[in-house]
Design goal:
The chain contains 6 helices and 7 strands, in the order αβαβαβαβαβαββ. The chain has one domain: Rossmann fold. A 7-stranded mixed beta sheet has the order 3-2-1-4-5-7-6, with helices on both faces. The protein is α/β, with parallel strands linked by helices. 43% of the residues are buried. It binds S-adenosylmethionine. The site of S-adenosylmethionine has 21 residues, from helix 2 and strand 2. S-adenosylmethionine (SAM) binds next to helix 2 and strand 2.
């Protein structure tokens, strides 16, 4: 199963109307569209991308589907926006989705960078609801992608030591080019 399909299946099983969800890397808006559909007009989706082209593409996609009402757009670094959201609404996000790398068909120099990604992921751990889902897909085939994925693997290990439940879907490190890898994290369960 493709990792994007796995992410979408998990979101469909998890999100409910009225929920708050975050797309940390809007790109062309495919993930934002699904999040907006699942949370419905009573919910809220914060949609983040550093590039105007990505915000425009996502806005158009949601407008065409009639989902603008529940969408809030942020053209900024996800590390900055997630830190602000975590301060405003700690523990409120039912799902946060990262799909790392660069906007397909655009300038590959504008791509996610490990230090921003880790900072955004740390803020996400504060923003996520106790039963929330944090999903991170990293692409290892482009320059810098494998190093970014390595940093996330180390970070995920640190979260696991803190009690987070981590599922990692890695089709294999022996393939050329290296395939994408997905982590799904859920917060530590608090004892009843
Ligand atoms: C692979 S694309 C996302 C694809 C998207 N999920 C979709 O459904 O089309 C990665 C996106 O991350 C964005 N990006 C790169 N660095 C970023 C940062 N520091 N903060 C927010 N977005 C960033 C890029 O502009 C690009 O649009």
């Amino acid at each position: 199963m493709r990792l994007t399909q796995r992410v979408h299946d998990q979101l469909k099983a998890h999100l409910r109307p009225g929920d708050f969800a975050v797309d940390a890397t809007a790109g062309n808006g495919h993930d934002s569209l699904l999040l907006a559909e699942l949370v419905g007009s009573s919910g809220r989706v914060s949609i983040i991308d550093v590039q105007a082209a990505a915000i425009d593409a996502t806005q158009k996609r949601l407008h065409a589907a009639g989902y603008l009402e529940q969408a809030q757009f942020h053209q900024d670094n996800h590390a900055t926006v997630l830190a602000a959201l975590a301060k405003q609404s700690p523990g409120k996000a039912s799902a946060i989705v990262f799909n790392l790398g660069y906007l397909p068909g655009s300038d590959k120099l504008v791509q996610t960078k490990a230090h921003h990604t880790l900072s955004a992921l740390n803020a996400s751990t504060q923003l996520l609801a106790p039963n929330g889902l944090l999903m991170v897909t990293a692409y290892r085939g482009h320059s810098g992608g494998a190093d970014e994925a390595e940093s996330i693997a180390t970070w995920a290990g640190e979260q696991e030591a803190l009690g987070w439940v981590i599922k990692c879907y890695d089709p294999g490190c022996d393939k050329v080019p290296l395939p994408p890898v997905l982590w799904i994290l859920t917060p530590p369960t608090t004892a009843p």
